[in-house]
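Worked Example 4.2. Consider the chain below.
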Amino acid sequence: MKIQLRKNALTLAIAASLGMSGMAVAADTSSSIKGQIVGPQGNPAADTKIIIVHEPTGTRRVVTTNDTGTYNASGLRVGGPYTITIDSNKFRDAELRNVYLSLGEAQKIDQQLSELQMESIVVTGTPVLFNSSANDTYYGADAIKSTPSINRDIKDVVRNNPLVVIQPGGDSSMTIAGSNPRTNSITVDGIPLNDDFGLNSGGYPTQRNPFPLDALDQVTVQVAPTNAKSSGFTGGNVDAVFKSGTNEITGSVFYEKMTDSWAGTPKNNGKEVPLEFEEENYGFSIGAPLIENKLFFFGAYEKYESPQSIEWGPAGSGIGANETKITQNDLAAVRKIASEVYGVDNIGGADTQPQLEDEKYIIKLDWNINDYHRANFIYMFNEGNRTNNMTDDADDLHLSTYWYNKSEKLNNFSSTLYSDWTDDFSTQISITSKSVETGQISLDSALGLGDISISNIDVDGDGVTGDISFGSDASRHSNSLENDLTTFKFDGTYLLDEHTLEFGIKYDILDVENLYLDGSKGVITFNSLEDFAARQISRYTYSNGIGNNPDAVAAAFKRKDLALYVNDRWDFSDELAFSFGLRYERLGSDDKPAFNQDVLDRTGFDNTYNLDGADIWLPRAGFTYYMNEDVTIRGSVGRYAGGNPNVWISNSYSNDGFSRQNFSASDVTAPANILNTIPPEAIEGINNANRGSVSNFIDPNFDIPSQWTYMLNADVTLDIPGLGDGFAWTTTAIFTDKENTAEWVNAALLQEGDVVGSTADGALPFYDTRELEIMLTNADKNGRSIILSTGLAKTWDNGFKFDMSYTHQDITEGNPGGSSTGRSNYRFGHFLDHQETQIGTSSYETEHRFVLNLGYSTEFIENYKTNFNLFFERRSGSAYSHLTRWQNLTGGRFFNQDLIQPSGFGSTFGGNYLAYVPTANDANVLRYEGTTEAEVLAHYESLGLSGYAGGFVDRSTATSPWTTTMDLYVSQELPGFTKDHKGEVYFVVNNLLNLIDSSAGKVYTQDFGTRNTLNMDIDPATGKYIIGAPITSDYKFEAEDSTYRIKIGVRYNF
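Applying the procedure from the previous section yields the following structure tokens:
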């Protein structure tokens, strides 16, 4: 008898359990087993029964081989253990025990049966723990639990993948294969947990990981899967499945704590940046049978609480770890004027306690209807709240009325029916409903204050001036969001000889209600404390919808998107398998933005296009070649689309160019009630406005962005003399060619004759209009990606294991699409002329990345495990661009003139422009203002930019510093109250390197991928440059990530 699980006869014994073989099929909620059974002479063994039993639940599945001896069992629970019996009425039976299946893995088990007189063979496997390669990675429950995770986040698990990079900072944005974080997909048990609208850079629809981490059974990461079933991303897909109840009552209870007492004090250039924090996390999980072998329950709950510290307070107040330039006397003076002059007694304080809390739970029911049908039902809930907009630097003190609470509530329902209609045909039918409510409520919402800022305050007369901001900050004046996603899916699998045919349909209905109107309570700026006392406003702005109704600006629309797919997995021979797939996607919507005749007149474009009818074909093909027992080669080519945030579409509804109206006034004397009352002049200004504001719309010829991805992968099992055998070496090469990339242009500048001149060197064109009509369109130039990754892994019988990898990325892009608004994406692209796409190094590229995972499991106490797991990462920094900061150095307000300006500028804002580097005695420079030529040339020399003298710097020529991460997890099992129970104590050290060496482990980033180098202006008469003073700035110091933090936890498992 010969059993073949793609490796040699005994490794093969557990290949299914280790997940080292088989072709990853798609984002899924289940596993499958397929293969071919042949007789002693190699001929097909038709009508052989394959009996598959999931031991923990007694779930039983029986399939029969067809005329070619092939079989397929899909829709199986992930994990195990399974017992697989091959029952033949002609040949000797065989049994495979302790087989474990991986999520989304089509595990191929072939067997050659022996004559009846031969002895039966029993093969035993082990549970899936961890396996990583660049294009396909999965993690079992034990690997998830033992990951050094400081935040109990699935991202801490998947960062082990060579292509997954988690960026520092509070949002922990995740890039996969160097992609925009918004273009990834996250699903758990078929539930899409993406930020469908697209406001959260962290990728979740919630502020933290949206589900209890202990609820996860398995996690996979896939890049460019060949199966046409997968879509909705161009970066990568993180797919997971929740645990299920079994015939045994099992569960756990945990408590974790982290405090600044168990952390270091970060130092930036020798200066301490004190941190004050305390975090508690607790929860439980339980699985149990409701009806043995029939109905099962699993539930998990988790609560996180962290009263946030106040980092900045008024000087002399003792509030916060740092002092602002504003003193107690300054604050007292502002309070007094607000009360006595304006009649406002409450403007907020500096000592209000900000909050961060998060609560989540899941409930899962599994029902074994009979041997041929099973179903599950899942409910998931998450609600979180974080106080934002506190003071973050010394210059501007934000009082508590300027803070706001950002809350998000997630409700999710999902149900799936798995059915086996015949031995050859099975289906999965599912429905999912997800609702997300986002609130951004100012702490002063009951006071009705506008956005008030007072500059240049210096009551003490010591020459140190600061600013104070209070009231509702402008972006919170009218701000609400709710989006509901309902998904229907049908997936079918049909076995036809050596072909496994998959086909299906997916239908999404997305309802969006979004209101964003900044400044609807008024934005008031005072240039000094004296002006505040005299009611002398430097600038007043007010925005509202038509009729002074904020709801007139709200975006409410529904999208109905359809996808169809078919896929053929063809097992051509024992050594070679092919996969061919085709997917069709069509976008639909009956809701259009309001028509704006002015936009049509100014641009020639109809602003009502809503992508209804936009479609795309996504073909894919791949192969798997088992060269021999130790070498497997995989290759694929495919087209991928999806992941583009719906907020880009919503911009067209919110900013139609006339629903929002603006009013502004400068240097005026205000009435006494101005802080909390809109003056009649502003209300009349909105009512009588003869034109609207900036418009956003979609190019009627817009094509869905996509990319072609080509991948080649080699998996090799090798022996290293002196170290052992069974090393797993994997190497992956990925090439991606992007097409129809999203781009934003000012459609008002596309008409013939709009360009009326240029700078003296011809580099910057001048346009004859100040109109700003932002159009989402396709770039005429697209980026590409070249990625090479190689890794080595090994597990020894003595408990040691390691996994190491190196990845190189070479990625280019046009507009990074880093913002949620079209106006910002237009303004802040790193370009010379914002009307022209400029290709450069991607902001999301990580050129070099080294990853090492070390693990050791032993029993210092007999029968009680001690586990050590170390994660180490060293990676290069992100690319950024050197920019010019345009300032009025001429006295003539050149960039606010009506008829001449570079692209990207409007009447109320500037934009990003690449830096100009002069030569000595540069003919294109009119003069130096407030600096000298020598100082400017020395400044550019220090930045390493002298090579660009006489022209503009290329985009993304610099990178932020390298980052080194080292995290440690240690756990010790202890006796429980009964024989089958165990306690556990554990701790996680985040940034272990900093604990070892306080000067190491520091993290620096560059905000927004840009850095200003100097001030510059243009002389309107000659078009020559006027160069101002150089600008020096430091990288952003990520204080929390730059010191060690220790988390201690206890757990009781039963």
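The chain has eleven helices and 67 strands. Residues 1-26, 892-901, 903-909 have pLDDT under 50 and may be disordered. Compare this with Example 4.1 before moving on.
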